[in-house]
Design brief:
By secondary structure, the chain is an all-alpha fold. It has a single domain, classed as TTHA0068-like (Hyaluronidase domain-like), CATH 1.10.3450.
């Protein structure tokens, strides 16, 4: 019988309640502009996702990189901003992933505008069913 892949590392095995709490914390931090702390909270969720769910992990990684890009933007680190922002936008491309609780389609559009200097940072919002 094939062995089920192990979760990715620290944070592995989050219960649904713990995952929801972590996401609520990440959302609150992000929307207050505390991008690095939001990055850390999102990373806990990302680490809890099994490596065999690569597509879902990629979307979470894109959200994490979006946080990092906004940190670079705030610090006026243009080189870091360009590199990380491009990776984030690429990973968030496509439609809404069914297993990601946040509205990544709207987030990506807002992020792209903000990184181009055409608006405020995006808000991290729950997707609607």
């Amino acid at each position: 019988m094939p062995r089920r892949p192990e979760p990715a590392g620290p944070g592995a095995g989050l219960t649904p309640e713990a995952r929801k709490a972590q996401l609520e914390t990440a959302r609150e931090l992000f929307n207050r502009g505390e991008f690095w702390l939001a990055h850390e909270a999102l990373e806990t969720v990302w680490r809890s996702i099994s490596r065999d769910r690569a597509e879902e992990r990629l979307v979470w990684q894109g959200l994490i990189q979006a946080c990092a890009a906004l940190v670079h933007r705030a610090r006026k680190n243009r080189a870091g901003l360009i590199k990380v922002a491009a990776a984030a936008v690429e990973k968030l491309a496509g439609g809404q992933h069914a297993d990601v609780e946040f509205d990544t389609v709207r987030f990506r559009a807002q992020l792209t505008r903000a990184l181009a200097g055409e608006g405020d940072p995006p808000r991290l919002e729950w997707r609607t069913p």
